[in-house]
Design the sequence.
């Protein structure tokens, strides 16, 4: 009886989520693979060298979308965390928790590819005085702290609450990253894409890789959310079995 | 082809950037797929074990 009650109250929404997501999985996975194959091929083989940057412009195609994703995913986590605190929707903390390692991976990639570009173009891999670089590194630390917090607290409800608060506090870094290149005049250049200062021959592969990253993220996010729903269901079943 | 790999003299920066990207994303895909398959199998096994209680729901 206890099992039945828990399932109805806690897993009503997740159950429907499992149905919907299972139809989406093959489509998002396939589309992500296709977009990234086309995007990487286009970026590497079909773009000219930049008139100023030479072939280092090749790194822009993987760097800029990775940085976008780091911010985009964090915004989703902050939104889901707000939903978790305010509406207590059972899927919102699942959504936030599952997205975090993916956002951290994109942020780490943005930092690494950026420093690969910085060495030949700026003459340095890293500059502590640059607001964009440092605020991006802080974003990675916030991600890692957020993941560590989830792992540190055993009770999922308490972990969800603590993690949601951390996610909302950490959201202060997002506008800082965005405006850092305008507020402080340092190494990192301002946005070229939104200013229209980028040639169409570069914009196409950049856009396709950005879309590919987004769809790849959606696919892996769904997979990870399903994993979390299964894990929670397994925990409930284990408790029922023990009782 | 050699010219392509040389990346205009920037090979030591361009290729690590691409290799790190492809490697990181591939690891994310493999880890997510594996964890998903394992968790789904785990639930299936537990549901089979409990069996009877589940039908009432």
Sequence:
């Amino acid at each position: 009886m206890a099992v039945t009650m828990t399932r109805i109250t806690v897993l009503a929404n997740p159950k429907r989520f499992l149905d919907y997501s299972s139809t989406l999985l093959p489509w998002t996975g396939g589309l992500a693979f296709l977009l990234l194959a086309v995007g990487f091929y286009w970026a590497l083989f079909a773009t000219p060298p930049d008139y100023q940057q030479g072939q280092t412009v090749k790194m822009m195609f993987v760097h800029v979308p990775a940085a976008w994703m780091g911010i985009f995913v964090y915004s989703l986590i902050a939104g889901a965390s707000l939903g978790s605190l305010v509406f207590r929707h059972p899927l919102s903390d699942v959504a936030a928790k599952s997205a975090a390692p993916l956002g951290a991976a994109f942020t780490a990639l943005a930092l690494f590819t950026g420093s690969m570009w910085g060495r030949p173009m700026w003459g340095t891999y890293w500059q502590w005085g640059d607001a964009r670089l440092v605020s991006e590194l802080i974003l990675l630390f916030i991600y890692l702290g957020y993941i560590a917090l989830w792992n540190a607290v055993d009770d999922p409800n308490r972990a969800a609450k603590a993690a949601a608060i951390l996610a909302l506090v950490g959201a202060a870094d997002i506008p800082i990253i965005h405006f850092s290149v305008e507020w402080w005049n340092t190494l990192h250049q301002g946005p070229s894409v939104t200013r229209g200062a980028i040639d169409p021959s570069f914009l196409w592969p950049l856009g396709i890789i950005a879309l590919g990253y987004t769809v790849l993220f959606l696919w892996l996010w769904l997979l990870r959310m399903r994993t979390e729903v299964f894990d929670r269901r397994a925990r409930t079943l284990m408790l029922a079995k023990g009782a | 082809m050699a010219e392509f790999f040389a990346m205009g003299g920037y090979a030591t920066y361009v290729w690590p950037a691409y290799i790190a990207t492809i490697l990181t994303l591939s690891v994310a895909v493999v880890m997510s797929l594996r964890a998903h398959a394992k968790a789904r199998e785990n639930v299936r096994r537990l549901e089979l074990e409990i069996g009877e209680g589940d039908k009432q729901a």
Remarks:
- Chain B has a mean pLDDT of 91.
- The two ends of chain B are 63 Å apart (CA to CA).
- The longest helix of chain B spans residues 11-50.
